[in-house]
């Protein structure tokens, strides 16, 4: 997991955006600023943020329209959105929440309030408990001890392979595309090629030995971990 959450600020007023960015940076977060929906969309296409601070009144598409669009897109629908609204816009708040915003905050707001709200949506977003132990097939992943066992015996595994397995094993029996794995495992992947995923999957299988068969390639779609591998060639569709 990255320890610096990436926060996309969509705000057309540079002074407000700058103030927010400085405060986020001072509190261990990594802010990115876009002044309208189009540039925000380009940011999102390049790197999926951990949360979005979305101003209501923007040139071009409004915050409301953007919130609806990002909620409808499978890639962004899990990203928390905090709407920034002007004081007294009560109906706006309701429409914002209807459009899929997770929370709203009224301008002017205190830095402490903003940080508290952001931390709250980030916590809600990460259901994967760091201490959790997960068992699938013969694989045991003990996240607290950062340890992986195959049939009860410790497996030597690299940090990226550990993160990859940690994600796959907590979302089993489902196919994840390379793009989705880059988003969820690497996060900040603007300079990482999809082929990198293949390299780490290969290493993960090698580390697991016979347990590597549980990590299946789904041709043309991506990868899946399963308690009941199909058998035969792993590369089979
Ligand atoms: Ca504005």
Question: What do these coordinates show?
Answer:
It is a single chain. With 237 residues, the protein is α/β, with parallel strands linked by helices. 39% of the residues lie in helices and 21% in strands. It contains 8 helices and 11 strands. The chain has helices at 14-26, 37-46, 63-72, 90-98, 111-125, 159-170, 178-186, 195-208; strands spanning 6-10, 30-34, 51-55, 81-86, 103-107, 133-136, 139-142, 147-150, 153-155, 215-218, 222-225. Helix 3 (63-72) links the parallel strand 3 and strand 4. Helix 6 packs across helix 7 (178-186) and helix 6 packs across helix 8 (195-208). The longest helix has 15 residues, at 111-125. The chain is elongated, with a radius of gyration of 20 Å. It starts with 5 loop residues before the first strand and ends in a 12-residue tail after the last strand. The structure holds calcium ion (CA).
**What characterizes the major β-sheet?**
5 strands, parallel
Number of helices: 8
Output mean pLDDT. Answer: 86
> Can you tell me the CATH topology of the largest domain?
Rossmann fold
The ligands found in this model are: calcium ion
Class from secondary-structure proportions: alpha/beta
CATH class (first level) name of the largest domain: Alpha Beta
Share of residues in strands: 15-25%
Give the strand order of the largest sheet, numbering strands 1, 2, ... along the chain. 2-1-3-4-5
The CATH superfamily of the largest domain is Response regulator
- The number of E-state strands comes to 11
Distance between the termini: 31 Å
When the domains are counted, the total is 2
Low-confidence stretches: 232-237
Gyration radius over CA: 20 Å
SSE ordering: EHEHEHEHEHEEEEHHHEE
Choose one word for the global shape: elongated
Looking at the overall shape, the CATH architecture of the largest domain is 3-Layer(aba) Sandwich
Helix content: 25-40%
